[in-house]
Specification:
It is a single chain. This protein has strands at residues 5-13, 19-27, 36-39, 50-51, 55-59, 65-70, 74-79, 87-92, 97-101, 106-109, 118-119, 128-134, 137-142, 147-152, 166-172, 184-187, 192-195. It has 196 residues and is mostly beta strands. The strands form 5 sheets. A 4-stranded antiparallel sheet has the order 4-5-6-7, with no helix packed on it.
């Protein structure tokens, strides 16, 4: 578990409306575990923190995101959605980032510095209310309480038979009783939790 990191996030407010913000990340495998501090631009105040296994991220106050990931090397990515949409939620996996916009659209990206968020094709006509993800799988819950999942299905974490090993696209879960409406989900490494 040497790749787990510790995170701290803090902001120092200066005079008037100016704020100087820092995101501090400590990786056990880089810099002997000593914190690395990233100075954010004025107005880019972190609003929350999302933690994966080898990655962390924050949605900034201007609706964009910063992702810090340790893959083969330390990467710092500033990403925004197309058409000036605002990010309201992030889900971080080992190789993919999922973002939910304020209009209920889902976008996907990866950890390459040149990558951009693109809308997830199979969810284009579905308004999504909440996303979650960790490791190799992701969940998306629509405003109607429908559940969509994608990724690896090692232990049945996608609510499909273990015979189905991988879903490359978001696919609706039909094994949840339609009488119940799912309101949110949480993805752990090999488990998915749903709140009805």
């Amino acid at each position: 578990w040497e790749y787990f990191f510790r995170y701290s996030l803090y902001a120092l407010n200066l005079l008037n409306d100016l704020s100087l913000c820092f995101l501090t990340v400590s990786f056990s495998t880089i810099n002997d575990g000593k914190p690395i501090t990233i100075k954010l631009l004025p107005g880019q105040k972190p609003t929350n923190l999302y933690v994966g296994m080898n990655e962390c991220g924050s949605i900034l106050s201007n609706g964009t995101s910063i992702i810090i990931a340790k893959k083969t090397e330390l990467k710092i990515l500033y990403q925004s959605l197309p058409n000036e949409e605002k990010i309201v939620q992030l889900a971080l996996g080992f190789s993919e980032i999922i973002a939910l916009s304020s209009t209920g659209k889902v976008y996907s990206s990866d950890y390459k510095s040149e990558s951009k968020f693109v809308e997830v094709e199979e969810l284009k006509n579905i308004k999504i209310n909440q996303i979650s993800g960790k490791g190799f799988h992701f969940n998306a819950v629509s405003i109607d309480g429908l559940v969509f999942v994608k990724g690896k299905n090692y232990f049945g974490e996608l609510c499909f038979s273990k015979d189905i090993k991988n879903l490359t696209n978001f696919t609706q879960v039909k094994t949840i009783d339609p009488y119940y409406q799912v309101t949110s989900s949480y993805a752990s490494f090999y488990t998915s939790y749903f709140i009805l």
